[in-house]
Amino acid sequence: MEKKQHLSVKVTPEVYNLLKSDIGKGKISDFVESLIVRELGTSEKRIEQEYRECYANPRMIKEAKQ
């Protein structure tokens, strides 16, 4: 199992109670992690996307060869 880092986030009691009731206590960390991955993507996915964008642009290819 991969070792996880700790992250503290402050939320209002209303938000915490909503998370606890809708997501479930003990599942909030996994929920937040899934949202972050969905929004930001993994490093590998971001690098792949940047390569695709670079090689789709002929000007970028020309600049890379210089």
Descriptive overview:
With 66 residues, this protein is mostly helical. The chain has one domain. It is elongated. The chain is 67% helix and 0% strand.
Structure described in brief:
The protein is mainly α. The chain contains four helices and no strands. The chain is elongated.
Short descriptors:
mainly alpha; 66 residues
Helices and strands in order, then pairings?
Layout: H1 13-22, H2 28-40, H3 43-55, H4 58-65
What is the makeup of the main sheet?
A: none
Stretches where pLDDT is under 50 for at least 5 consecutive residues are none
**Number of separate helices:** 4
Share of β-strand residues: under 5%
Q: Give me the strand/helix succession.
A: HHHH
Give the mean pLDDT: 84
* Amino- and carboxy-terminal Cα gap: 44 Å
Report the radius of gyration as a whole number of Å.
19 Å
